[in-house]
Design goal:
rod-shaped; mainly alpha; 91% helix; 2 helices; 0% strand
């Protein structure tokens, strides 16, 4: 194998490692995003639960009237 091919292989291997490292660092703040999403969803949980109970009560009344 010629020296030029060995240098090219080393260069491409180094370039691949740099690109993979860049992807890894780009995802560094993932946990903060997950925590923010969790807090946003949990803040809507109580009002949505009450809304579902109200819808269930109305459907129960309508079903009771039809019987």
């Amino acid at each position: 194998m010629s020296k030029k091919i060995k240098v090219q292989k080393k260069f491409f291997a180094l370039a691949a490692m740099v690109l993979l490292a860049a992807n890894t660092f780009a995802q560094g703040n993932g946990m903060a995003g997950i925590n923010d999403a969790t807090s946003m969803v949990s803040s809507y949980f109580d009002p949505i639960t009450k809304l579902i109970y109200a819808i269930g009560a109305v459907l129960g009344l309508v079903g009771g009237v039809k019987v």
